[in-house]
Design a protein that fits this description.
This protein is α/β, with parallel strands linked by helices. The chain contains 16 helices and 8 strands.
Length: 398
């Protein structure tokens, strides 16, 4: 086991109605002027944004809204939000939405006290920030886990880069997780969120560092994600399934699964970042295409872990609410490739893609995609990838 430090200062409020204390919590922190960041309209259409604004303004808070953050967030939106935050003299930020909104808000929190573009943090050309605006989060999509960690990912379309960055100043002060707020998430994005949280668990599980307890946690996160993820996709109003998936997505990337390890691999994320930057695909959908291919490519090196996954996750179909799926014969995969057949079957059942062709990306894109993977050196922390690996990986993704 490696030496490690556990630190997570986020106060997380979980359950129905937890956002009722939002205004009081902001006032308790001595905050009066708040910039609210949201996406392209779903939180406004659902009525959530107006309810939160009414609550805050009713308590005397000064509030402005920055709207229009994209699902693959770009640094230019963060820079514009920084300007608005400075103009209004914001004392805090409130991110209402999923991972793209929260990641953008983290960039704004760090950029508020600087004069340069937030992209300089991600590109590595800026000094570490010494302070940041306090960030509060109302989560509406179970997926990234950014509500309880220090990491953020933004995209630069001009350079074709999608990069992550992290700093301890970016931990949210309070994150509000009400499973009822996720019930309006469409079926496809619910599925993409499940694929995303599973990818986070897998990236840490496949780290070769020895930490049996962390691996046991990861196995259970993956098993429960398949059980409750299938339920949540099948019936978006299944509150228990929504609750479980919401908590699983948080646990998958809040530090619980990495204790005793140096780091996760995150090579699949590196590949997917190139994929989504090039084709603007949903992050979770890209991950569900890349991960089975990555497992097939590296299977000889992770055989024992794949067998443990097969044992832990077998039987997920027996819990499915659809009797046709529940009673169907078990999927028999390649005996030399444990788990991957089960994983592909699960992704197909919840409706997230497992092939690039299913996302409308033609086979003629093989060579340009490999070139992009090479240009951005899309590799893992432990499982190194070079030209032959990228070529085979892309072939397996078709």
């Amino acid at each position: 086991m490696e030496s490690f430090v556990v630190y997570n200062p986020v106060r997380l409020k979980f359950g129905e109605g937890v956002t009722d204390t939002l205004a009081a919590d902001l006032l308790e922190h001595g905050l009066q002027r708040v910039l609210v960041l949201v996406g392209k309209g779903s939180v406004r259409r659902s009525g959530l944004l107006d309810r939160l604004l009414d609550q805050m303004r009713g308590q005397g808070l000064e509030v402005e809204v920055f709207e229009g953050i994209r699902s693959n967030p770009v640094y230019e939106d963060a820079d514009r939000a920084v300007s608005q935050a400075k103009s209004m003299g914001a004392q805090a930020l409130l991110a209402v939405g999923g991972g793209s909104v929260i990641d953008t808000a983290k960039a704004v929190a760090a950029g508020y006290y600087t004069e340069h573009s937030v992209w300089d943090f991600y590109a590595g050309g800026a000094p570490k920030p010494s302070r940041a605006l306090p960030l509060f989060v109302v989560l509406t999509l179970a997926a990234t886990g950014t509500e309880m960690n220090r990491a953020t990912v933004l995209q630069n379309n001009a350079t074709g880069q999608k990069r992550g960055w992290g700093n301890e100043l970016l931990f949210p002060k309070i994150s509000y997780l009400d499973p009822l707020l996720t019930q309006t998430v469409p079926r496809d994005y619910t599925a993409y969120g499940v694929a995303d949280l599973m990818a986070h668990a897998l990236e840490q599980y496949f780290s070769p560092d020895e930490s049996p307890l962390s691996d046991a946690f990861a196995l259970q996160v993956l098993r429960q994600a398949m059980i409750y993820g299938a339920r949540a996709v099948y019936n978006g109003q299944d509150t228990e399934a929504r609750s479980q998936v919401l908590w699983l997505s948080t646990v998958a990337l809040n530090g619980t699964l990495i204790a005793g390890k140096k780091r996760g691999d995150f090579g699949v994320h590196a590949v997917e970042h190139v994929l989504s930057a090039r084709y603007d695909v949903a992050h979770g959908a890209g991950l569900s295409v890349v991960y089975p291919a990555w497992i097939k490519h590296f299977a000889p090196r992770i055989r024992a872990k794949l067998e443990a996954l097969e044992d832990a996750c077998s039987g997920w179909r027996a819990t499915h609410p659809d009797p046709q799926i529940r009673t169907a014969p078990a999927v028999v995969g390649d005996p030399d490739l444990p788990f991957v057949g089960m994983l592909e079957d699960f992704f197909e059942q919840i409706g997230t893609p497992t092939r690039l062709s299913q996302m409308g990306i033609p086979v003629e894109e093989c060579a340009p995609l490999v070139a992009d993977l090479h240009r951005h050196n899309a590799t893992g922390n432990y499982f190194e990838m070079k030209e032959p690996d990228w070529q085979r990986l892309v072939q397996l993704m078709y």
